[in-house]
Write a structure and sequence with these properties.
Number of strands: 9
CATH topology: Alpha-D-Glucose-1,6-Bisphosphate, Chain A, domain 4
Structural class: alpha+beta
Helix content: 25-40%
CATH superfamily: START domain
């Protein structure tokens, strides 16, 4: 079986390659594609819909614009968009009113590959239907899906 992730590294890692702190998740992966393609998958409605298995997706590509991912499970606004380099978002889920977390994707060129540095901070402590451990499992699952979709797209374009 081919692995989409070529390396994962960040501080003290758990068995799934993620570093945890009290209110944060940090993950670094290197994938075999260019950072422009990674950025496109993360900010394009149709490409993100594909990675989510066809779930309802709405993505504005404007700074300050709104997005809704995974059928509305994650909603929020873009804080910063630097094409091909960085995406910073404020996320909401099924949390208490006014609770937001911050998601930051930094895309770094490494030769022909891209290193994705993902930091998810200000995670609410276990709240109603979205306790922290469930959120972490969901983030790991979709993050790997993104990395695999991007890697697959790069392979298809090379053929």
């Amino acid at each position: 079986m081919r692995s989409c992730v070529t390396s994962s590294k960040a501080g003290v890692l758990d068995s799934q390659g993620i570093s945890h702190t009290a209110g944060a998740i940090h993950q670094e992966v290197v994938i075999k594609t260019n950072r422009k393609l990674v950025y496109e998958v993360l900010t394009d409605t149709e490409q993100f819909r594909k990675l989510s298995g066809g779930m309802d997706t709405k993505i504005s590509r404007d700074p300050g614009g709104a997005f809704s991912l995974f059928g509305g499970v994650i909603t929020g606004r873009y804080i910063e968009l630097v094409p091909g380099e960085r995406i910073v978002q404020a996320w909401r889920s099924d949390w208490a009113p006014g609770d937001y977390s911050n998601a930051r994707f930094v895309l770094q060129e490494q030769g022909l590959d891209t290193k994705i540095v993902f930091d998810h901070t200000r995670l609410p402590a276990g709240r109603r239907r979205a306790p922290r451990d469930r959120m972490e499992r969901a983030l790991l699952g979709w993050a790997r899906a993104i990395f695999c979709l991007v890697d697959s797209e790069a392979i298809l374009k090379a053929d």
